[in-house]
Each structure stands twice: as C-alpha cells, then as structure tokens.
Amino acid sequence: MSAELDPVIHPVHRLQICALLANADEMEFALLRDELGVSDSVLSKQLKYLDDAGYLTIRKVPSTGRPRSWYSLSKDGQCAFQKHLDALRIIAALAT
Amino acid sequence: MSAELDPVIHPVHRLQICALLANADEMEFALLRDELGVSDSVLSKQLKYLDDAGYLTIRKVPSTGRPRSWYSLSKDGQCAFQKHLDALRIIAALAT
DNA sequence: TTCATAACTTTCCGTTATGGAAAGTTAAAT
DNA sequence: ATTTAACTTTCCATAACGGAAAGTTATGAA
C-alpha cells in the first residue's frame, strides 16, 4: 500500500490550509486563522512549515503598520496537494 | 471550517487500516502489517487504538498455536470512516 | 507435563509533533 | 521616538510515533 500521502500536507491543520488555499487563490493571515480556529502562533508555525517545503507563495502588500501578507499555494504546492488528493482517493477508494 | 475530521482515523496508519478493512470485510494481522509495511508493535498499537475507540470487531479463530484474529470495522467504525471520508470530500472539495 | 511455536502485546526509550501563552520583531504612520 | 498591526519565536508541557526487545498466551508435540 502507501499511495504516497504527503507528510507535509497530511496533518490536519496543514491539510485544511492547503484545501482553503487551493480553493481560494489567495488568503490573508487573519482569515486563515479564523477558518482554522487556531491561535496566531499555531498558524504561523504551520505556514512556515509549508513555506519551508516550498509549497507557498507569499505576497506582501503595504498597509497600515507592517505590510500584510497574502498566502497562496506555489506551483509545487498545488502539485503536491493534487498528488495528495490522488493518494487519498486511491487509499480511500473515493470516486473522482 | 473543520468538517469533522476524525482524529482517531486521520493519522496515516490508522487511515490505511480503516481503508483496507472498509474494502475487505476481514483481514488478518500479518496481511495488514505487510500492507502497511510496519512492525508488529506498531500495527498492534494502532489496532488497539482503533479497538479502544470501538471501531473494530475482532473474530478469534482457533488455529495452530494461539488463535488467529481477523479484524474488521465495527458498525461504529464503518460509520466513523464514512463520516471521515465525507469530511475529506468537503475539505478537499473532492467530487463524490 | 514440560517444551516449542505462532501470534500478538507491552515496555523501554528516544525523536518529533502540537499547542497555547507570552515575549519579540518589524514597518509605517504619528 | 512611539504606537500599532501583523506576524514570529521562544518557552514549556503534553501527546504522538517508531522500532527493538521482552513478555503473553494457547495449542500441539515430545
């Protein structure tokens, strides 16, 4: 078995982040945090984890105070997420 | 968000066990272990975890030496697995 | 009735993951 | 210089996770 589930993506919060980003193109920190229902620190760590894996593109937009960041999946991230979904489909015998 | 991913089922090995059992009715220890590619101890622990959650039915069949166990998903296990798949479909926007 | 064996289970022990709170950073506006 | 908004990191504690090895247990054989 083992249809290549991606350990970077599989843990719940990162899976949720990827799913949100895959369906939304771009999202900002506060919205992601609220959708996941986690603290700033937790979201920040998981975003860093995804970013370190090269799965994110971060666009900084000037705003009041520090620039705001908009997060999206990089090409690699999109690809990895699709592969992960494929693996889930295989493992779970989900219809496409 | 949070479409009710079941933390009992979500971790990779338990997801694989549930998926195998959902598609096979009944399986024995050695085959599960080989399909997952893990050690006896790891499989035993994950099976115990699922069993403690009430997700398994274990049928003991007399054989040479200690009786052999056949594992399957209990009603609760089947139900929980289906809900988990539903949650995955929602989160990942998978088509059914 | 004491092995030997098959089929698991538990314990031991070390590594990694998680999580929140709180403290720290940073860039721009005042 | 300060303040504020938007993150980041550190601190600290708990909970996985994994394999190796030791421990159980139920026969059947010697």
Automatic annotation (TrEMBL), chains A, B:
Short name of any one Pfam family annotated for the protein: HTH_34
Winged helix DNA-binding domain residues: 14-89
Domain of life: Bacteria
Record-linked PANTHER family: BSL7504 PROTEIN
Protein name: MarR family transcriptional regulator
Organism: Aliidiomarina haloalkalitolerans
